Amino acid sequence: KRLFLNLPIIDLQHLWIIFLSIAIEQNYKLGSMAEKMESLLEVITESERYAQIHFIVEEVLIKHIGEDSGSHRNQHRIYLKALSGEISILKSSIEVDIRQVDKISRDLHHYLRDWWLGHIAISDVNYNRALINCDGKDFILQQWINEIKEKNLLTILTIQKEIYEFVTGKSLNI
User: Fold this and answer.
1) Beta carbons of 155 and 162 less than 8 angstroms apart
2) What residues contact 2, with CB distance under 8 A and at least 6 apart?
3) How far does CA 11 lie from the centroid of its chain?
4) What is the pLDDT of residues 110-124, one digit of tens each?
5) Closest CA to 10 of 56, 58, 65
6) Which contiguous run of DSSP H or E holds residue 54?
7) Residue among 11, 5, 3 nearest 132 (CA)
8) In the chain, % of residues over pLDDT 70
9) For the chain, the helix, strand and coil percentages under 3-state DSSP, each to the nearest 5
10) How far is 46 from 37, CA to CA, in rounded Å?
11) How far apart are CA 170 and CA 72, in angstroms?
12) DSSP string, 111-131
């Protein structure tokens, strides 16, 4: 609960990213090494794609709040660079020794989990405090929602909505 910002769009995205991280860690339970490899690359690629969308959504909100997003944006860039590097290592490691897939899955899961939990608990909570304390919060949120809809950044899968509603006990009405 301490990681929820009470911004349903952001909270849903955070839950989905954590779900993807868990999927990476659970990868070792799959069948053959080829299946593990295929699944791991699929999930890690989706994690990278979805993080890019999420970061844009956050940065648009920070812009509407009127906060300087430079530091936050820099954290996002560092994360994406590290994740891209992990994907490259993963691809080259698996070509060399496919038996390392389980270890790589667990290591990636720990990295993603630790980064996201730290980022949400510190950086995201900071911009959320700024939002809570600013005048015209409802207007700012409406401008933000309009902009991310305009940019087609607000695609919500049924499973994402179901996870959000299950974890929060709240309906998602966007």
Assistant:
1) no
2) 121
3) 10
4) 888 899 989 998 889
5) 58
6) helix 33-65
7) 5
8) 93
9) 80, 0, 20
10) 14
11) 28
12) HHHHHHHHHIIIIIHHHHHHH
**The CA-based dihedral angle spanning residues 116, 159, 139, 52, taken in that order and rounded to the nearest 10 degrees:** 40
pTM, two decimals, is: 0.86
Q: Token pair for residue 36?
A: 């593990």
Flag whether pLDDT at 151 surpasses 80: yes
pLDDT digits (tens, 9 = 90+) for 6-16: 999 999 999 99
Instruction: Give the tens place of pLDDT for each residue, 56-110.
Output: 999 999 999 988 888 899 999 999 998 888 778 777 765 556 667 777 777 888 8
C-alpha pair distances (Å), 130 with each of 28, 31, 85, 133 = 41, 47, 33, 5
- Please give the structure tokens belonging to residue 29: 């339970």
Nearest to 50 by CA among 162, 168, 153: 153
Q: Which H/E stretch holds residue 26?
A: none
Token output for 146? 């309009």
Name the burial class of residue 44, with classes exposed (0-12), middle (13-18) and buried (19+) by CB atoms within 10 angstroms of its CB.
buried
Residues 6+ apart with CB under 8 A from 152: none
Is the model more confident about 27 or about 138?
138
